[in-house]
């Protein structure tokens, strides 16, 4: 990757839990590429991870914030702007959670209160982040806002249950707010649909290892790693992608457009 793609740019990276997370790797890449940023996560998530270690490595600070709270977001943006010395050029929404999946509830037996929590945390928080950013006029022109999605937003993956609905909502919000923010300030909004990735959240889904291997055999390039996804996010934060907006961008080694692979056919036929 060319050097200093993000020189002079500032922003916020959410959701860095541990060294396996895409947000964690994005923070390291952003630092390499000359960006200045703050890290944030929900207080409960911060107790589970090691985000303060990442902050030290990136020479930055952590500002706790619940992305479902408008008040927390206002506080986050105010303190981040003060620390960074100006408005933002990029925001990363790397937030997702499903109590139904955590507690083993099937799609036909959802706890609807938990489902609403899934949608609020995993998708509506994306809208709230942009709503508060617009209200506070905190984004610079030609800024970039990214969310992390998954192909279950378009296709059925039974193990993904209500998170599939949440990702579909996330992608719809990216289109709706992408149009609005593009007209207002030339800010672009996109989502990246990543390969199954061995993050803390990913591996918590039942049957993950089996599906990870299936997707790897299906994809002509193999599964994209978290580090490769971080590279893609950095490109989307840079000025090289100024006219890309309202898109769901597949980053999955070709999985999303492969009907069947020779590797899988050989495995099924035994030839």
Automatic annotation (TrEMBL):
Q: Which reaction does it catalyse?
A: a 2,3-saturated acyl-[ACP] + NAD(+) = a (2E)-enoyl-[ACP] + NADH + H(+)
Q: What class of enzyme is it?
A: oxidoreductase
User: What Pfam families does its record include?
Assistant: adh_short_C2
Q: Which UniProt keywords apply?
A: Fatty acid biosynthesis, Fatty acid metabolism, Lipid biosynthesis, Lipid metabolism, NAD, Oxidoreductase
Claim: NAD is one of the keywords in the record: yes
Q: Kindly list the positions annotated as binding NAD(+).
A: 15, 21-22, 95, 167
Annotated active site residues, numbered on this chain, are 150 (proton acceptor), 160 (proton acceptor)
Extract the InterPro entries matched here. Answer: Enoyl-ACP_Rdtase_NADH (IPR014358), NAD(P)-bd_dom_sf (IPR036291), SDR_fam (IPR002347)
Molecular function (GO) terms for this protein are: enoyl-[acyl-carrier-protein] reductase (NADH) activity
Note whether Iron occurs among the keywords: no
Question: What family is this protein classified in?
Answer: Belongs to the short-chain dehydrogenases/reductases (SDR) family. FabI subfamily.
Q: What is this protein called?
A: Enoyl-[acyl-carrier-protein] reductase [NADH]
Source organism (scientific name): Belliella pelovolcani
Write the lineage as a comma-separated list: Bacteria, Pseudomonadati, Bacteroidota, Cytophagia, Cytophagales
